Amino acid sequence: MSTTTDPQESPLTVLGAGPAGLATGFYARKQGLDVRLFEAADAVGGNARTLQMGPFRYDTGAHRFHDKNDAVTADVQALLGDDLRRVDAPSQICWRGRRIDFPLAPYDLLQKLSPSLLAQIAWEQLSIPRVSKDAEHFEEMALQSYGPTLARHFLLNYTEKLWGADATTLSPRVAGDRLEGLDLKTFLLEAFGGPTQKARHLDGSFYYPKHGYGQIAEATADAIGRDRIRTGARITRLSHDDREIRQVTVNDDARVGVDSIVSTLPLTRVLHLLDPPPPEAVRSVAESMRFRHLRLVVLGLDRPRLTANASLYFPERSVPFTRLYEPKNRSPHMAPDDQTVIVLERPCHPHTEAWEQSDDTLRNSAVDLLATQGFIEGDGDVVAVDHRALPFAYPILEVGAHDKANRLKAYLDHFNNLHLLGRSARFTYTHVHNLYARARRLTERIAPRAESVA
């Protein structure tokens, strides 16, 4: 094993160079801190990368940059300049041969659902109680938000497919902000005001980089300095003295001394890496927490466009995929003028048939779905194929997971130089603009400690 390095060579060590790690490195440099990042993959970006397939470009996720924090938006605009562009591309649900706007829009439902179904929905909107802040699980929250008819047709099946769990076992937190703002006032405004009377929560406008979402990661890495980022560097041990993390081991070989350390690794992974290991009770909690993996099928198609949508959702259980996104609808530079590229997502649990099935089987399922939906006539339209596996794509926010995560974070809090940042690290659902804002606040707190040590 190679010799330990002096922690003073870099007062801040960041584990992971996905969005959270890169944001931390970026704002650390703005604070005047030296920083080093260790990333297990061969490239930066984590699950927010843009990849190339011949003339096609696609993202490892249906990512969008939301203009929800003025300071963060300004920072990202400064990084990308004119390459960060505002996009209007709506999403829809594919349901029984129809395309229904998502988030659900009452005016759109009036145009596409039968009178009897609409009558039932309208009655439920008038009679159901408003959303309670103390809903015990996602199903209860969905029923309160939309009523039984909309929830069961469009939300519950989809949610159970996405997370691989019964909706009564999932926390209301899995909804994020998707159910905010839909109340009786919104329903009536849109139902009688027409398509121009869209509520704020239905806004389909967002920012997107010219050359793919991964351009944000690449520009952030350039601002940090590529010499400060080591790829192909898998963390295999976190050595501690019960008060601080003293060393990280990289690739089972190099031991690196650390001062302040920010981990963006999955929360349960951090517990597994600790040496000495945590108490059995802590390990038991960590082992009970689960992540959802993703399989991606990428198809280059010999046609200018497939749809006009940012994403299409498939709530029906008979469809193995949950979502389709078409990168060209975010930026025309993602595919040639006369062709397009689409990505289909299949969520999986590890060690299941869906996770382990062959690429060819998954590809055939994707082509069959497109043909059944009337998008293509068959294999003849497919000119390129790629596959990606994304482990630890989403923390599964089951009922009680929030309390479990807090127990694990409370244990890790007694290491006074260890900080956790990111979706997987804190076991929560969040967006990139939130990660950048939290990274800025975190580095502002770390900077005085680094200066005092120096």
TrEMBL record:
Q: Which GO terms describe its cellular component?
A: cytosol
Record-linked InterPro entries: Amino_oxidase, FAD/NAD-bd_sf
In which domain of life is the source organism classified? Bacteria
Q: Where is the Amine oxidase domain?
A: 20-437
Give one GO molecular function term. oxidoreductase activity
PANTHER family on file: UDP-GALACTOPYRANOSE MUTASE
* Taxonomic source organism: Salinibacter ruber
The name of this protein is Protoporphyrinogen oxidase
- Pfam families, alphabetically? Amino_oxidase
